[in-house]
Amino acid sequence: MGTSVIDGGRLLFLVMWLNLVPQTDSCPAKCVCYSEPRPTVACQQQGLFSIPTDIPVRSQRIFLQSNKLTVVKSTSFSSCHNLTVLWLYSNNISYLEAGAFSGLEKLEELDIGDNSNLRTISSSAFQGLTKLHTLHLHRCGLSELPVKVFRGMFSLQYLYLQDNYILTLHEDTFLDLANLTYLYLHNNKIKIVTNNMFRGLINLDRLLLHQNRVIFVQPRAFSDLGKLKSLFLFFNNLTVLTGETMDPLVSLQYLRLNGNQWICDCRARTLWDWFKRFKGSSSELECYVPEFLAGKDLKRLKSEDLEGCVETSQTQTNIFSSKGQSGKFLSTESPFGVSIPRCCLGENDKSSILSGKSRQITNNPLKEKENISKTKYKDHERTKNETQHKQNDGPLGTLSNTNDKSLENLSPDLIDSLESSTASNKKKKKCSKKPKSDNHCIRSRGFALKVMTFLFIPTTWLSLALS
After folding, report:
1. What is the pTM of this model?
2. Among 21, 127, 162, 284, which lies 20 to 30 A Cα-Cα from 428?
3. What spans are recorded as compositionally biased (Basic residues) (predicted)?
């Protein structure tokens, strides 16, 4: 009887002892496993060609970076339902099997960056990762992202897509990412920032788009970015950015637009006006054209500096060339769609230029003399009226409400269809800051008409043309 009691007591003690001793799982070869602060399997820099098959199921963190892995299979982590951190960066991964991360509902951080052979990702690659808050996809050789690739990732806060070859982003790519705060897209090849590219990013705090090839930002591209505090667009191919485009950025504090080739004429007026209201910190915006403003900061110009215009031919030759830093212009054709900007023209000239018509020259030299006299009178009246209505609108004054709206109708398709320009390299005259005198203009027109008359009319009329 006594012996039975003793044996029973020993058995009970053994059971209690086994329950108190922590259970340990086997650790894969070439890996180090530890339990604190969280169950972790560390296999980095071990020259592994495949993911170990005997990873403990209770693992919460797995470090497999800096190996030679090529494929992530659907079974690689299927038993690791407690996994919260997975590092796979700096490998040779070129393929993610469908369901590679399925079942990892608790995963919070996934780093598969620096896998330059990955290049493409399935639209369902991240399906089910509803708890993921950080995703690294930098330096993966990606040229595009599938439609709805981030669908259902409502917890994502940090998205790293820099140093890829992304040319464009589908509309509503980030629509489900209402909690995203940091979006890194720098050092890609994006050309157009479209109206719906960033739709849904209502809590975005930082947007890095520098060192791309951005040539145009559509008017409503930033409509949902009311909480954005940092915007980097430096070292792109921007020449014009309207104030209306920037208006939704009511929380913006840090703005970098340097390293672009800004056109500082009437097309920059709305941006200049926006900067008067902007209270944050900004880099300089160095003017590229016109020549007399080259190197000056757009923000520090006076209103009268923006009254002139730059001929499109000069813009084509100088700005849209293959020179410059990363993000080069591949064409010399203007993206603005018209040969002469509307704001470069007087009211009497806009209709004829935009309709493709011009003043007809007759073959009657006497009639031409009459036309010249009428033109001189009209030019004099126009100059007089402009002088009377000119506003005193310095940096602290009132801007004119006649802003250029031509860029709002620009189609992104124009950019993709650019062709090499056949324009001459001869330096073209640009619009002067101050108009030349009427007498000078009349003399120039008269001389041109006389030359044309000499070439195209009978010699019997020559004396009339030169009189």
Report:
1. 0.67
2. 284
3. 425-434
